[in-house]
Amino acid sequence: MKNLYQIYLISDSTGETLDRIFLALKAQFNNFNYKTNHYSFTRTENQILKILETCKKQKKIIILYTIVDNKLSKFLNNETKKNNIPCFGVLGDLIDSFSKLLKQDALNVPSRQHIMDDEYYKKIDAIQFTMNHDDGNSMQDIEKSDIILIGVSRTSKTPTSIYLANKGYKVSNIPIVNKDSIPENIKKNKSKKCIIGLIAEPERLAEIRKNRMTSLKETGNQKYTNLQKIQDEVESSKSTFSKFKWPTIDVSRKSVEETAASVIKIYEISLKNA
Predict the structure, then answer these.
(1) 5-114 belongs to CATH 3.40.50.720
(2) Beta bridge partners of 34
(3) Would 194 disulfide with which of 83, 214, 232, 270, CB 3.0-4.6 Å?
(4) Banded pLDDT at 95 (limits 50, 70, 90)
(5) How is the chain split into domains, by residue range?
(6) CATH number belonging to domain 118-273
(7) 217: phi > 0 → left, psi -120 to 50 → alpha, else beta; which?
(8) What beta strand segments (E) does 67-107 contain?
(9) With contact defined as beta carbons under 8 Å apart, do 103 and 134 qualify?
(10) Is the pTM of this model over 0.85?
(11) Is the backbone of residue 212 left (phi > 0), alpha (psi -120 to 50) or beta?
């Protein structure tokens, strides 16, 4: 492919941070053809030299890296300068600036964000809870939820719940199938839980549902993809959310990350008003 850039993502840990940063970066450019090359747990000069040997065989190289060891970071920068390879450290300057501001030396320990501390186990607990309370599967201890998402089919309830769980939130989601789908204790909400309704444009839902049925090779359930039926579902859900004064989020043009960010904002407001 013409003008194809080889993007080398070099990390001394899992590379998750670097992946997210590059995702945000590339979104700012429309005409950007690239191929990513991932190198995680890069912690020695020898590993770097091997990566650069591969780089030399290609054209249009750009290196992004997250390496907290100053000596290794300098080694990478020196070697790339020798070979005229564009190379950008993502965390280095930021860590140095924080070090000066906080008046303390950085630990410079790779993978420190993945330490199995109380926060880590809280996240695991949240993921387990959320998986157990997906799609209305368990209602017994639903009041232990931090957040409850409600909506008709294919309004991103499950992916949003899982994304939030990975941030440490215990989330339950309930599908609206009929007028009895929402339990009475949720409607009364005596414990003042953060309940949020998810909605979407009927046309968008119809498209998603048709694609879903096609992928499953099912053609029998015509009502599920019928636009008029979906319009009725959406209007009914809106009426329910309005009746119980639950905030709503239109997910039609939102990514899971954007929907989750909106959910967190509503949740934080609900805590202040509790």
Answers:
(1) no
(2) 5
(3) 270
(4) low
(5) 5-114, 118-273
(6) 3.40.50
(7) left
(8) 87-89
(9) no
(10) no
(11) alpha
